[in-house]
Amino acid sequence: MGIFSQNFNRPGPGVPKNAPKKKGIARYFEMLFRDFSTLWKASMLLSICMIPMLVVIFLLFAPLFDYFVSGNVASLLPLSMILIFILLIGVSGMLLGPALCACHSVILKIVRDEPGFFWHDFKKAWRSCWKQSYLISAVFSMLIALDFVSLCLFFGGSHQNATDGLTSTLLLGCIVLSLVIFFGVWFISCLQIVFMNIPTAGVLKNSLLLLFGRLPRMVPATLIHIVFLLACFLWMPLAPIILLIGVPGLIMLWTDMLAWPPMDEVFKLEEQLKELREKELSGEKSSISD
Fold first, then answer.
1. What is the pLDDT of residues 75-85, one digit of tens each?
2. 274 phi and psi, to 5 degrees?
3. Alpha-carbon distance 57 to 233, whole Å?
4. pLDDT in tens, 64-73
5. What is the 3-state secondary structure (H, E, C) of 47-105?
6. Is 286 exposed, middle or buried (0-12, 13-18, 19+ CB in 10 A)?
7. CA distance linking residue 83 with residue 117, whole number of Å
């Protein structure tokens, strides 16, 4: 039609019915642009639940960061205060656990191209996951906080040549390895809690096996989380801005995109979810016919 025609809604070529899904970075940006509002809302709710932990982290790591940078021993907190702050991080981690599971539930629906209603899905996941997630998150948040304290003490001590040689290299390697293991097991545990109803010991065992059994995907997903946390630590004044613009949701989208295929491959989750939906639909139809 001409430029002055009344019909300005000429249909485009569309997408072929059997067109393959995009992969990699193209797939990520497709989901990002399509569901950015959902990701931002999930990120905001997660950030609100993180506020108690962020306050404790700032009180603990502000002095440690000075020691990390300058090696000034006078800036260190007493050991008793450090342990109290780590315990408070664990207490605040109880609130973070259900929020993480609820966010993963919402974001995994985006990854799986399953339609959903944000508030309903978030509340449903929170209610179903909080009993198992709060204790796991409390323990792992304390362990990860201990690792970050160890890193600060290690690099702060290096300014005074308190650590050197092979011993320091092995010590740093152990700290980094434990950080990867703790974070990876916590991350994979949250994903399992969303979809699977198994005891906590089984969740932790499966998480450890998945972390090392599916290294090409699980370790990069874990490292993305760790790099994000390190960036927030090194540029602490910018952390509130990072949270406000919804960066946690963008990070979780990428890590869930990496972690979902191996989890589905191992546990056949998509098949189980499909069977569950069919049972629900058949139940609704039978109730309507009655």
1. 788 889 999 99
2. -65, -45
3. 10
4. 888 877 777 7
5. HHHHHHHHHHHHHHHHHHHHHHHHCCHHHCCCHHHHHHHHHHHHHHHHHHHHHHHHHHH
6. exposed
7. 41
